[in-house]
Input
Amino acid sequence: MGTHMDTSHDNRITDFEPHDFLRSLFRTAKAILFSPKVFFEGMKREGGLRNPLIFLACCVLIHALIVGLLRKNQTLVVANLVWGIIMPFVTAWILLFIITRLFKGSGTYEMAFRVNAYSAAVALLSWVPLVGVLLEFYRIYLIVLGLGSTFSVRASRAFLAVVITLVIYMFLGGTIAHMTGGQWPKAVP
Output
C-alpha cells in the first residue's frame, strides 16, 4: 500500500490565466492540443470572455505574424488578424443557435465562444505548410469535442452543427463572390 496519490486531476488546465502569461499560454495550448477531452471536460463554463479572448488573440497574432513573415505580405497579416478574431464570435452565435434550437441542447453563448476560442490553439502550428490543412481538420475535431462536452450533446450532433455552420459560411462566401463578380474587396493601404 503506497502513499502515492494521483494529482493529475488537480493539475487540470481549465482556463487561460493572463497573470501567468507565457506559462499559461503554453500549458493551455498543450492541454488543448494533446489532451482535448480532459481540457474541455474541465473547462470553465463561465467567467467571462476575457481569458479565452486573450488566448485566441495570442494564437491568431502568432499565426498571422509567422504567415506574414513567410509570405512577406502585410495585407495577409491584417486579414488573418481580423478574420481570426472576428470569426470565432460569429461562429459561436451560429453554433449556439444550431445546438440549442435544432438539437435542443442547453448552454450559453459564452460556452460556445470558449470552445471556439480555445480551439484556436491549432493556429500556433497551422502556418506549417501541408500540416496546416490537417490541423484545420483537427480544429473541427476540437470544436466537436468541446461542443459535445460543454453542451452535453452527442458527438454526432456536435459534428452536424459544425458541418451546418461550414455550409452557411460556404453559402455566404459564394454569395459575396457572386455579388462582387468573384473579386474579394481589397484592403486599402
Notes: Confidence is low (pLDDT under 50) at residues 1-10. The helical segments are 21-34, 36-42, 50-71, 74-102, 109-119, 131-151, 155-179. The chain has one domain: 18-179. The chain has seven helices and no strands.
